[in-house]
Amino acid sequence: MKRLRHWILILPMLLLAGCEKDLMDYEGLEGVYFAVQWGSSWGGEKSWPYQPYTEVNFMAVSGDEADIALKVMVTGPIKDYDRIFKVTVNPDSTTAVIGVDYKSISEECVVKAGEYVSSVTARLIRTEALQNHTLTLGLKLIPTNQLAVSFPEWDAVEGYTTGTVYEHFDASQHTIRFTDMMTRPLQWVGTDVSPYNGGYESGSWGAFSRKKLLMICDRFDVTYNDFLSKETMPSALQTLIYKTMAAMLIERYNAKNPVLEDDGRLMWFSGCPWMSKVGVPWIPDAGYYN
Fold first, then answer.
1. Which of 2, 115, 116, 141 could be cross-linked to 172 through a Cys-Cys bond (beta carbons 3.0 to 4.6 Å apart)?
2. Which InterPro entries match (predicted)?
3. Which CATH number applies to 31-179: 3.10.180.10, 2.60.40.2030, 3.40.50.620, 2.30.40.10?
């Protein structure tokens, strides 16, 4: 399996100054907690809520491994020396298998002198099983003689609402959910079923399938992420794609080497002379139409 590291910046490294001060002035034990934030695209670190989990889709990753950095913050005063905290895999929230789905986690981490933020990194591995399943990797902070565990009962921070808000959770734990399942992207121009032609595929690209999208990516040197916005998938490119792909499919058909979807039907784009219905295999002796 090709080993390519892909560092994913899951979290911003700075928080709103007022919130930082409140947490630094926390009157409980000096300790660590997962400070993972994410939310709506129009938000940011000043408004994203804190989250008990992180989602990773390998469709957006280049390579067969992904290093996921999860932000960890410290409560209490900043120190002029390094401090150690520990992390371990939480079996209660983990379905992934070490050595197969993820690499071993470094159990000892450091908050450097003069800092109040650190991170825990998990290296995930892309496997074929992820194309049909979502796996989980749960992590849990462990207290040391230098740093306790802060906020085992985290309460949502007021004003941090541009995203899904979890009112209460244990901030000493965090779960990574990862998959390689391909879902229909936002800029897919086609439909599985048309009500106007007997339920056959329609639109420029017809029904969405992983196989079809990967063939487009290979032909046009684009990635799954390019299908997520109009800026990277403009209408001119959409048109070029269906015309080019239809010509290729027709050429393959005439060469008696047709491209079939996983259910056995002929792959279809607008411009193909045949019709194709999801779930209905193509019968070679029937010609274009079953």
1. 141
2. DUF4843
3. 2.60.40.2030
- For the chain, counts of helices (H) and of strands (E): 3, 12
Under 8 Å between Cβ of 122 and 138: no
pTM for the full model? 0.74
Question: Could you give the 3-state DSSP secondary structure of residue 267?
Answer: coil
In order, the DSSP letters of 151-192 are: -TTEEPPTT--SS---SEE-TTEEEEEEE-PPPPPTT---BS
Query: CB of 200 within 8 A of CB of 276?
Result: yes
SS3 label, residue 214 = helix
Q: What are the distances in angstroms from CA 50 to CA 158, 160, 167?
A: 11, 8, 9
Q: What is the DSSP letter of 285?
A: G
